[in-house]
UniProtKB/TrEMBL annotation:
Start and end residues of each Enoyl-CoA hydratase/isomerase domain: 22-341
Biological process per Gene Ontology, one example term: L-valine catabolic process
Species this protein is from: Streptomyces laurentii
Domain of life according to the entry: Bacteria
GO molecular function, one term: 3-hydroxyisobutyryl-CoA hydrolase activity
Official protein name in the record: 3-hydroxyisobutyryl-CoA hydrolase
Gene Ontology CC: one annotated term: cytosol
Catalysed conversion reaction: 3-hydroxy-2-methylpropanoyl-CoA + H2O = 3-hydroxy-2-methylpropanoate + CoA + H(+)
Keyword S-adenosyl-L-methionine: no
Keywords, in A-Z order: Hydrolase
The protein's Enzyme Commission number: 3.1.2.4
Family matches, as SUPFAM superfamilies: ClpP/crotonase
InterPro entries associated with the record: ClpP/crotonase-like_dom_sf (IPR029045), ECH_dom (IPR045004), HIBYL-CoA-H (IPR032259)
């Protein structure tokens, strides 16, 4: 007679200390460690516990499995919430964005191992860290315009500070950046081959973070963006998405013309709001200010039809054939965009930036 025993499920975030390091492991490998509200809270609780713990001098965040650190927020849950007219997504975004700001200001080295897929909310967990490590497998992206959203989790702040118009390009297209391109765009700091991450992690438990990373950092393999800077800067320097598409189309450069086609497949409303948000973030004085505006944009997108339709097309039905509303860039007015940026009154996300500005 055999007896089966149901083992308790492992937490979605594994939290432990080893040597001098506090280690966070996102533990939903089948979902490429997509971030849930409960996971964001657990990470925040761990950061609280370690902030004043003298035994912990470094925090390390990594992803379970071989596919990536984090594919982003759990958009299936957001899709279900939006279809039901719920409010759970607002509570998630509030706590997630507060966590993003906390990571940027964390008083101890926060080392993000950005191996594999790092998108959306995954960028929020890593891109604001003080030490950001990419590998040859890294694919870093903010793909929100493809599902009717605007780059959030501080994405407009990060991309708004990328050299030239690289951030505008990455924000509007949602293109994936490999290791060298992520470093060039300011989304990462160091390249370490993926095979050496276990040894690096072991060193982080014994040595100061900067010293440990320096032992393993290598020059990244060549990327693509450096060679494309000329046409990216020229084509994205206009004031409107329409002008960008026209310049890309007329450039005579095959990669640029392909990019125009990519943009025309994204949500027109999200594209125009994203351009305004990235340009506006350049004028802001803190990550917290950018997150406040991103919360307005996320709330507006939640109430608009493109979010449900975009997630349906990309993730639920996977037909890759979204029917946007409005369908064209010409159908999105300046007034439409302005409404997405309108203050939320009592619902506003309120974050207080500290004195001085850190990385973020």
């Amino acid at each position: 007679m055999s007896v089966t025993t149901d083992l308790p499920a492992e937490p979605d975030v594994l939290v432990h200390t080893e040597g001098r390091a506090g280690i966070l492991t996102l533990n939903r490998p089948r979902a490429i460690n997509a971030l849930t509200h409960a996971m964001a809270r657990r990470i925040d609780d761990a950061l609280t516990a370690w902030e004043d713990d003298p035994a912990v001098t470094t925090v390390v965040i990594r992803g379970a499995g071989e596919r990536g650190l984090c594919a982003g927020g759990d958009i299936r849950a957001i899709h279900a919430d939006a279809r039901a007219g719920g409010t759970a997504s607002f509570a998630f975004w509030r706590d997630e964005y507060r966590l993003n700001a906390r990571i940027a200001r964390y008083p101890k080295p926060y080392v993000a191992l950005m191996d594999g897929i790092v998108m959306g909310g995954g960028v929020g967990l890593s891109g604001h860290g003080s030490v950001r490590v990419v590998t040859e497998r890294s694919r870093v992206a903010m793909p929100e315009t493809g599902i009717g959203l605007v780059p959030d989790v501080g994405g407009t702040w990060l991309l708004g500070r990328a050299p030239g118009e690289l951030g505008t390009h990455l924000a509007l297209t949602g293109a994936q950046a490999g290791a060298a391109d992520a470093i060039l765009a300011g989304l990462a700091d160091h390249y370490v081959p993926s095979a050496e991450l276990p040894a690096l992690t072991a060193e982080l438990t014994r040595r100061p973070a900067a010293e440990a990373v320096a032992r393993f950092a290598r020059p990244a393999p060549p990327g693509e963006l450096a060679a494309r800077r000329d046409w990216i800067d020229a084509c994205y320097s206009g004031d409107t998405v329409e002008e960008t598409v026209q310049r890309l189309t007329d450039s005579g450069i095959p990669e640029a013309k392909e990019t125009a086609t990519v943009l025309l497949g994204r949500s027109p409303m999200a594209l125009k709001a994203t351009l305004a948000a990235v340009r506006g973030a350049r004028r802001l004085d803190s990550l917290e200010a950018a997150l406040t505006i991103e919360f307005r944009l996320s709330c507006a997108a939640f109430a608009a039809p493109d979010l449900v339709e975009g997630i349906r097309a990309q993730v639920v039905d996977k037909d890759r054939d979204p029917h946007w509303s409005p369908q064209t860039l010409a159908g999105v007015t300046d007034e439409d965009v302005a409404r997405w940026f309108a203050p939320l009154g009592a619902r506003e996300l309120r974050l207080s930036p500290p004195d001085g500005d850190g990385k973020g």
